[in-house]
Amino acid sequence: MTWPGDTWPGDPFDLPREAALLAAANRTTLASDRRLAGVVAPGSAEELRAVLRAAVRDGLALHPVSTGRNWGYGSRRPHRNGAILVSLAALDAIEDYDEVTGTVVVGPGVTFAALAAFLASRGGRFQPPRTGSSPGSSVVGNIAERGIGKDLYEDMAGHLVGLAVMTADGGLHEVGPMRGPILPPAGPDLRGLFVQGNLGIVLRARIRLALTPPVRQVVAAALPSHGALAAFVEASRAALQIGDPWLRVEIVNAARAVAQDEESPGAPWLAYATVWGKGPEDLALRARTAANLLGRCGTGLEVCAPDDGPPAAPSTTGLHSAYHGKPFAMPDDPDPDRDRCGVLWVTANLRHHGGEVAGITEAFETIMSAHGFAPALSLRAIDGRSLRLVAGLFGDRDRPGDDARATACAEALHALMARNGIPVGRRTSAQEVGQDLDQNPGDARLARALKRALDPDEILAPGRGIPAGPPLPGLPLTFGGPPDDPVLDDLARQMAADLDGLVAGLPEGLARDARAALAAYAGKHPTFFGLYYRPTWSFLARVALPGPAARHRPRLRRLHALTLFLHLWDDHLADGQLAPTLGRIHLRSCAWSAMEDEAAALSRAAGLPDAPWRDAAAAYLEAVGAPPEPADLDAALALARREAALCTIAPGLHAALAGEDAAALARIIEDFAVAWRIVDDLQDIGRDAAAGRRSTVRLALTGAAAGAWDAAGVGDPRALAALAARLGPAVPGLVARAQAALDAARAVAQAHGWRDLAADLAASRVVIPDVAAPDPALR
Asked: Considering the domain 485-778, what is its CATH architecture?
């Protein structure tokens, strides 16, 4: 092995831990508290096999990387704290170059620059792959992470022909054709299993090369609005769907162009069409077609002079954006990790649909601007069916607050995508991973089953691509819902308007931040209050206000809208899910003040003292701001009731003004809050266990199951799998406890004659969707 001082795999405590070595390996361009415990660099397949066997023996997690230049996505930072970095940079052989099939086999240490030099030495018949990152980054690493290429290699993973993969048991397997014809042989095609996953370590990859076209030309035009952007996306779809391999389309906005050290285009968007040709006449025809396409949608059409094909070698020009937030220019030897550049990429996979692309890019711009980032965006067309939206968050890790802003912005963008059903293209090693699998429970179950079969000890990059541990059977656990009701839909819109009115009273700069955050929360829901299950607010329409009391309905609605908003906002400000910007804190203060005014006025109207609602507010603040550590499940559920105290103020006043039982209506909200707490914790078992949270699920566990939960919280890579095998007995009891709270709430509603509210609660039974058989470990 190549690192100095290596004696492992003989003794895990002799791993190289030189301060400089580990410091370099732990550098990254984004905030993360995850650290490597050591580094090894096997120089052969046999040395890697010894590392794998030692990791199984000693229960250590490994984090394999190629050259480690995964800048903006986590660099060499592990997904699991305390993992051992396995650098594959020494495996840099270029083999089996085949001019007939146009393929070459490369190791994970082969860089884009090295492959370009190799192909140039063979006459340049085939164009080397390019990327917007460093020429020193790995070709195999880019493919394995489903990275983005340039020019004729836009979809790098699409050029994969075959793989040689080592699994956790040390077995070496060829997946796909590694020699001869490039069509996969009869039988299942397993190549995709080893892309963006952690089922094995890629030691060699056979890739398909693109022929070098004789000539190239670029056509560009400015797109003056989101409408023009939508029109160009629509117009380019048919041309790309034809499948012309010598046409590429890329769109960048003004902020992205400036970040790349280019001149501002003077318009919101700039579209490029690059065409290649067999000769001057063929190229001229293609360029005219591209110019007609851009001329119909944009302005300032520019047709560049033809040149001799794409650049023959990679360059560092794409790295300028990494240094956009630094006070100095990019050096001649760029290394964003070393130079503490702030770089965090967020990628979204979109349909090639103009209206959808314009809508989501506008939402991205709003959220990024609200977090203080120039909204640097690019759109990379694939085949007329899909587009990659790439957002760059560029800052300076030496500037206080930049890390926190970038993390909060990325979380808001991912929340927007999740709520709108937009798949994430790539995740970073500093973020929760595997959530994209959760969009399809069938994929998640199968991926985890394969992980258990190929890596039962969870030593290979636990958490990368495939989340550690199987899911709870029946997820996503949720509540049923009342049927569509125009009255309730209108009520939700009115509550949203009440909240919008509060936001409108903020200074415009703060209001933009607040609107962006609220939009990210609402996501696919028509309004912010679509986030809440209907029994938390339907009493406003279900419990009548007779006679003169009806005039208080708007104030009661506004009061409850404010308390529901504060309940979510405070919770997420307190636990770090929501970055505490000035706008969000100020909005919270305004909401609290408005809530107090409404509660006081309604208490006077009902002839009640202020003490009850003030006591409820105080109980809520203590429960959210300084909660005691619950000793058992009953204590945790009692805490959930106190957390819901703020949301019982409006129901209590509503009932008092209606001449009804105030305590009874408030109790219904508390009971539903208890059920919601249990269901929410059941939905988040894996995340809560990995974070070491004492959720209601943890408090329901005893013995070995409780021990497995606690081990997961301190980073044991095998603990989640052990926990899954022991969860079974606790789950039915928790589901029954949640349903019992719902039944109690419904019984109160029925006893007081609130039939419509009782019907809402009956329709909200805990639902465990039929998503096929549970994982064997949970049977």
From this structure: Orthogonal Bundle (1.10)
pLDDT digits (tens, 9 = 90+) for 374-404: 999 999 998 899 999 999 999 999 999 999 9
For tokens 């007779």, the residue is 546
Residues 6+ apart with CB under 8 A from 139: 106, 110, 111, 112, 115, 129, 205, 207
- Give the angle 95-99-105 at the CA atoms, nearest 5°: 25
Six-digit token string for 187: 């039988």
Contact criterion met (CB below 8 Å) for 107 and 203: yes
Give the type of residue at 219: V
Domain ranges across the chain: 12-87, 94-184+192-211, 215-326+337-419, 485-778
> How many other C-beta atoms lie within 10 A of the C-beta of residue 279?
10
* pLDDT surpasses 90 at 229: yes
401, two tokens? 């607050």
The DSSP letter of residue 219 is: E
Half-sphere exposure of 111 (CA within 13 A, CB side): 17
Phi first, then psi: give them for residue 444, nearest 5 degrees: -65, -45
**Residue 507 CB burial class (10 angstroms; 0-12, 13-18, ≥19):** exposed
For domain 215-326+337-419, the CATH class is alpha beta
* Per-residue b or e along 430-464, where b marks 16 or more CB atoms closer than 10 Å to that residue's CB: bbbbbbbbbeebeebbebbeebbebbebbbbbbbb
Residue type for position 148: I
Domain 12-87 has CATH 3.30.43.10: yes
Q: Are 131 and 13 in contact (CB under 8 A)?
A: no
Spacing of C-alpha 511 from chain mean position? 25
Q: The whole model's pTM is what? A: 0.64
DSSP 8-state code for residue 100 = T
CA distance 729 to 735: 11
Q: Tokens 């190229």 identify what position?
A: 283
CA distances from 148 to 130, 151, 254, 349, 406 (A): 9, 10, 20, 12, 22
Q: Where are the beta strands (DSSP E) in 45-159?
A: 62-65, 83-87, 94-98, 103-106, 126-127
Q: For 475, which DSSP code?
A: P
Per-residue pLDDT tens digits for 7-24:
445 443 345 556 667 788
Q: Closest by alpha carbon to 496, among 475, 522, 459?
A: 522
Kindly report which listed range (398-402, 442-446, 638-642) carries the lowest average pLDDT score.
442-446
What's the CA gap between 489 and 537, in Å, rounded? 11
In whole angstroms, what is the distance from residue 221 CA to residue 218 CA? 10
355-370 CB burial, b ≥16 within 10 A, e <16: ebbbebbebbbbbbbb
At residue 277, φ and ψ (nearest 5 deg) are: -145, 165
What pLDDT was estimated at residue 774? 33
83-87: strand order across its sheet: 36-40, 83-87, 62-65
31 phi and psi, to 5 degrees? -75, 135
CA-only gyration radius of the chain, Å: 29
Q: Considering only CA atoms, which of 525, 508, 339 is closest in space to residue 418?
A: 525
What is the number of helices (H) and of strands (E) in the chain?
26, 19
Beta bridge partners of 131: 149
Query: What does CATH list as the number for 94-184+192-211?
Result: 3.30.465.10
Provide the β-strand partners of residue 85.
39, 63
Residue with tokens 């601007």: 369
- CA 599/CA 108 separation, integer angstroms: 64
